[in-house]
Amino acid sequence: MIRNPRYMGVVTEGQTHRRLLRSSGKRVPEANPDPEAVLRRVDKHQRFVDAELWHRANAMLEQRNPPREIRNRQARDPDNRRSGLWPSDALCCGACGGKLHRRLGQLGTRYACPDARGARRTCWNHLSGDTADIRRVAVPLVAEKVLELNGAVPALLAAMKRSATREEEAAGYQRDEHRLAEVQRRLQRLYDAVEEGRPIDDELGGRLAEYREEIAALKLRLAQRDRTGSRPEQLSERELRQRIDQLGKTIELEVDGGVKIDNIERIAAAGADVFVAGSAVFGTSDYAATIRQLRDNALAARG
After folding, report:
1. What is the rounded CA–CA span in Å between residue 205 and residue 231?
2. Cβ contacts of residue 236 below 8 Å, gap of 6+?
3. Binning pLDDT at 50, 70 and 90, where does residue 231 land?
4. How do residues 202-220 score in pLDDT, each as one tens digit?
5. Mean pLDDT of the chain, nearest integer
6. Which of 54, 181, 202, 209 maximizes the CB count within 10 A of its CB?
7. Contact present, 141 and 124 (Cβ < 8 Å)
């Protein structure tokens, strides 16, 4: 318990986030891989001991109990929950037809029929196969059978491509939704910090502008997609202006994100009316001079 820095008043927020498991549909907490999402602050009202005493106590614990080496007997890729399992879903028992499961026993990792074990076994197949031997034999056999089928390889590749495209587009929509929620939470935490009295310096102003620009871009991309993952039509500023003029209505074209001093003239010449510049302003030392330069460059494009 004493290893927790909360005892000296350090409050950490955003260490974990919830990830959606497609297999079960549940959201499970896991460590947040983004270090920028973790915010640490010192709250003197939650301090139990001084920082010096806390560090001395932890140094004594490190000397008494050095960290032990963690050994993973079944190492897997943390980004792929199915890594190391193939061909578990493709192997079936020759006696009962059930799927073979991988087990770790005295003879190492082997595939065996789960229904042939236990007090209520329903299968008589007590044989098992070494994982390395099965994988070494299964891959050539599967490839040989596929090549024997006429036209199977092109059809298989086309089906795999279509499936991967649909899954990637659907996953892209879901990633954008999750990213939007995460950025909105970060922005709200920064707003809360400002309300508590944190001054708005150049670093904080740049982060606020960056988060606002990202939120606007994510909302636009989500609005142009539907639930099936269809991709939005990519149009330039000039093409958008032409379509707006064809409608015969007074509509102002806004460009939000990526607007800078060196490109605002080109954007204005392409037909944009409203410009949103965040990092281009907050990333400089003189905000007023930067805004004047942006306005002059935009007006110069219109003559």
Report:
1. 33
2. 270
3. very low
4. 888 888 888 888 888 888 8
5. 76
6. 54
7. no
Partnered with residue 141 across adjacent β-strands are none
Domain of 198, in residue numbers: 150-233
DSSP states of 184-222: HHHHHHHHHHHHTT----HHHHHHHHHHHHHHHHHHHHH
Tell which of 171, 201, 233 closes a domain. 233
> pLDDT at residue 271 above 50?
yes
- The bridge status of strand 101-105 relative to strand 16-20 is unpaired
Percent of the chain scored above 70 by pLDDT? 80
One domain for residues 156 and 227: yes
Last residue of a domain, one of 203, 233, 263: 233
Q: How far apart are CA 301 and CA 34, in angstroms?
A: 41
User: How is residue 99 annotated by DSSP?
Assistant: B
Rounded Cα–Cα distance for residues 30 and 62 (Å):
26
Calculate Rg over the CA atoms of the chain.
29
Count structural domains, the chain: 4
What is the predicted pLDDT for the residue at 45? 81
AA letter at 207: R
Nearest to 101 by CA among 61, 131, 60: 131
Beta strands in the chain (DSSP E): 8-13, 16-20, 27-31, 39-47, 101-105, 108-112, 128-130, 254-256, 274-276
DSSP state of 116: G
- pLDDT tens-digit map of 55-100: 888 888 877 766 554 443 444 445 554 445 555 556 778 788 787 8
User: Cα separation of 91 and 97, whole Å?
Assistant: 9
Q: State pTM to two decimals.
A: 0.30
